[in-house]
Amino acid sequence: MGIERQQILTKIQSVSGKTSNNRYLKAISNGLISILPVIIIGAFATLLANMNIGGYQDFIESIGLKTMFMIPANVTTGMLALYTVFFIAYRLASYFEKDGVGAGLIALICFLVLTPLSQLDDANVIPVEYLGAKGLFVAIIVGLTVSRLYVLIIDSKFLIRLPDSVPPTIGKSFNNLVPGIVITIIFTIVNVLFQLTTYENVHEFIYSILQAPLLNLGGGYWSLVVMILVIHLLWFIGVHGMLVVLPIYYSIWMPLGLENLDAIAAGETPTNIVHTGFYTTFISLGGAGATLGLCILMAFFAKSKRYKSLGKISLPASIFSINEPITFGTPIILNPYMFIPFIFAPLIIGTISYFTMLSGIIPIANGTHLPIGTPIILGPIVQGGLILIIWQFICIGMSVLIYYPFFRALDRKALTEEISSES
């Protein structure tokens, strides 16, 4: 049985490793990671322009600050798809050891080729609705497709060759000319074909057929449960669960948060409970497994020298959601004592937080994407303020209570071993 168990674990780890190392999935996750500064700048600008504090809105409108705050918001989160398509194409081409900048530039051109123009005062304008969250899935698809076509054309050697005397920068630009022309023609044909359908353009087709259903599915309670279980079951057997699900985490949950920010910018109430900000702020407390509660127990209540020292060493990092010290120091991986709290602490906290927001007891987090490593307190400040700060501390308290009986069993065992070794 031991050998069979090890073989199963090895196969799971192998599949998970291949998934997390897949070039296309890495391009999506790392491309979206690359635009985090854009998202954070836009989120802060939106919040500054729309904070619902008595007298604040009247004040910033009277001196023109509201309009000023919305300028960076409009060109960051309002045009997120433009940055996304470039960086996803850039990343994928780089993984094939090709010119990422060239691929990214062509992808940006093709994305705009697929974006319909509108008439305004006898001028052609690009509707911004397709440049933000609504165009994100098209940006992902175009980024991957263009970059892969770019790699195929470059590998075919069907390029314009210039003499060796030509400077390398100019030569590289001409290398991108043939793939740029060919790929742009392909996407122009695609655009024309979609104009003949009832959808009229690719954006409406992808949003109706793919993006809207996935966001509706991904924004529900059961998608939250599945995501938590997958992440933590993988972690428990020694696989970095978050790395495996990052493409889904970013491509589905990030747009849900952006939709909330768009609603706030329009003076409406956000409706999406599940998004990356929700997970980072209320579930990933101390990292995978909501282990901040375990760190607190070890640092302040452990009787064994081993776990007291481990808790004190791990606590500062855990405040920033870095829990490798406690994950491998306890250890939590494949530790039967830790299976139940490690899996069920984030699940219980996530469930209670979800339904507390759904019932209106606490406000829905605004959806600002927060990078992994955001310290406690800062997250809820950005997500909505005082009430959510209090709720985060309640969540930490839940983590402490869930881990307590299992921690006591481990601590007693370690204390007994320490006493035996000293006698």
Q: How many individual β-strands?
A: 2
Measured between the Cα atoms of the first and last residue, the distance is 37 Å
Q: What would the average pLDDT be, to the nearest integer? A: 83
SSE string, helix = H, strand = E? HHHHHHHEEHHHHHHHHHHHHH
Give me the side-by-side strand order of the main sheet. 1-2
How many helices does DSSP assign?
20
Uncertain ranges? none
Q: Specify the biggest β-sheet.
A: 2 strands, antiparallel
Number of domains: 2
Molecular structure report:
The protein has helices at 2-21, 23-34, 36-50, 56-62, 65-75, 80-95, 100-114, 136-155, 168-175, 177-195, 202-218, 221-236, 241-265, 276-283, 292-301, 305-319, 324-329, 339-358, 378-383, 386-422, and strands at 118-120, 123-125. Strand 1 and strand 2 (123-125) form a beta hairpin. The model has no long low-confidence stretch (mean pLDDT 83). The chain contains 20 helices and two strands. Helix 15 packs across helix 20 (386-422). The chain folds into two domains: 24-210, no CATH class; 238-422, no CATH class.
